[in-house]
């Protein structure tokens, strides 16, 4: 629809969600938040979707919360109250989520990047935790950002608000890859092709495992991991994967070639 700020398209098992509000640098307005949440929910529930790609139109990936909407609103009426739900959707999505940036991300936009499983940016993209410079705290985004960043770097960048480039974002763990802008699509396709080789339930379970807090009791951890491993070895996906390997064919879940 012409008045949409977030578009949704599924092709070859890839759901592409596109932020399309360039007039305000894809700021997290109430409409954009609502549509983004809806499309993420649709992708999570669609068995035909194997991977989600989150991208954008315009020169900026996402500039953070919409400050025009935030001005004059009380603490209880701030749009940031809805933001944790979006980050949680991305973080816990059973489908791997790939962020594709051709331009800058700021504040909440960086939180979104960190919440995705894979993040790819053009070399020209820049990042900043600019909250302290306007008198607010990068609190909500810290939930997804801090697990990605090296601690010393996190202190520096959260406290100074200084902008940093894509190469440094790779070095500190925020991005997986930084490439020339005309190579972003190819790099995204490289990752989505690899992710599509994974079994859907195994991918979801692996993602959950990676995010799980673990006991300090090594025996308990091994017991939990053994149960998870054995369940999937003996499950329908595991058995199909083993059979396909022995028969030298692709498993049934691998998408057909174009």
Automatic annotation (TrEMBL):
Pfam families assigned to the protein according to its UniProt record, in alphabetical order: ECH_1 (PF00378)
Domain of life: Bacteria
CDD domains to which the protein is assigned, alphabetical: crotonase-like
Family: Belongs to the enoyl-CoA hydratase/isomerase family.
Protein name: Methylglutaconyl-CoA hydratase
A single GO molecular function term of this UniProt record: catalytic activity
InterPro entries: ClpP/crotonase-like_dom_sf, Enoyl-CoA_hydra/iso, Enoyl-CoA_hydra_C, Enoyl-CoA_Hydratase/Isomerase
């Amino acid at each position: 629809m012409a008045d949409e700020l977030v578009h949704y398209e599924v092709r070859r098992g890839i759901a592409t969600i596109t932020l399309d509000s360039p007039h305000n640098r894809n700021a997290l307005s109430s409409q954009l938040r609502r549509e983004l949440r809806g499309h993420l929910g649709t992708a999570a529930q669609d068995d035909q979707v194997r991977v989600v790609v989150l991208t954008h139109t315009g020169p900026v990936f996402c500039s953070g919360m919409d400050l025009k909407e935030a001005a004059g609103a009380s603490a209880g009426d701030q749009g940031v109250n809805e933001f944790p739900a979006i980050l949680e959707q991305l973080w816990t999505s059973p489908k791997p989520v790939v962020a594709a940036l051709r331009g800058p991300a700021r504040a909440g936009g960086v939180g979104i990047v960190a919440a995705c499983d894979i993040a790819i940016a053009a070399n020209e993209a820049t990042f900043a935790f600019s909250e302290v410079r306007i008198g607010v705290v990068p609190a909500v985004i810290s939930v997804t950002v801090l697990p990605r960043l090296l601690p010393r770097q996190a202190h520096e960048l959260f406290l100074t608000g200084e902008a940093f480039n894509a190469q440094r974002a790779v070095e500190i763990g925020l991005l997986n890859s930084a490439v020339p802008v005309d190579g972003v699509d190819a790099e995204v396709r490289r990752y989505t092709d690899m992710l599509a080789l994974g079994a859907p339930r195994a991918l979801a379970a692996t993602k959950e495992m990676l995010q799980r807090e673990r006991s300090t009791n090594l025996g308990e951890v091994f017991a939990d991991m053994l149960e998870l491993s054995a369940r999937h070895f003996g499950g329908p996906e595991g058995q199909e994967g083993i059979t396909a390997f022995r028969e030298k064919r692709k498993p049934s879940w691998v998408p057909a070639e174009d």
